[in-house]
Amino acid sequence: MKKPVKTDLFASKAPLEWAIIANGTLSTAQIPIDAEGNVVEGGIEAQARQTMENFKHTIEAAELTMDDVTQVLIYVTDRSQLPVFNKVYAEYFEAPYPNRAAMIVAGLAREEMLCEIVAYAAVPQA
């Protein structure tokens, strides 16, 4: 059985939940949008920060911490953006770090988006 995580993030018109918990795992995908659903301006650093803030908010809404995150998949639209994303990403985690992969993609769902993450976190069993 899957359970959506209630967040204060923009209520997407797309058929999605910002996070789902099922089988002891939280699954989420996060993008660089603000509370009104607009992609933030300011380049990769601003978008990486907004994406990570949305992610942290979602983790906390699930009553978890960033230490519970087990894997992160990072998508950026240009190889030169990865070092900037890494710098922002490093502010949100401490060792031991989650497993992760980074991909350079031709584009994302919204043309102005430069990054997106998909992540998984362990949910303690009650």
Q: How would you explain this protein's 3D organization?
A:
This protein is an alpha+beta fold and 126 residues long. It is built from two helices and six strands, in the order E-E-E-H-E-H-E-E. The protein has a six-stranded mixed beta sheet with strand order 1-2-3-6-4-5, covered by helices on one side. Helix 1 packs parallel to helix 2. The longest helix has 19 residues. It is globular. The model has no long low-confidence stretch (mean pLDDT 97).
How much of the residues is beta strand, in percent?
25-35%
Largest sheet: 6 strands, mixed
Helical content stands at 10-25%
- Give the beta-strand count: 6
Main-sheet strand order equals: 1-2-3-6-4-5
Terminal-residue CA separation: 15 Å
**Structural category:** alpha+beta
Q: Helix and strand succession?
A: EEEHEHEE
Q: In terms of per-residue confidence, which ranges show pLDDT below 50 for 5 or more consecutive residues?
A: none
Which oligomeric form is depicted? Answer: single chain
Radius of gyration equals 14 Å
Number of helices: 2
> What is the average per-residue confidence, as pLDDT, rounded to a whole number?
97
What gross morphology would you assign?
Answer: globular
Characterize this entry briefly.
It is globular, with a radius of gyration of 14 Å.
Write the layout of secondary structure elements.
Blueprint lengths: L2 E2 L14 E4 L2 E6 L12 H19 L7 E8 L5 H9 L8 E6 L10 E8 L4
Parallel strand pairs: 4-5
Antiparallel strand pairs: 1-2, 2-3, 3-6, 4-6
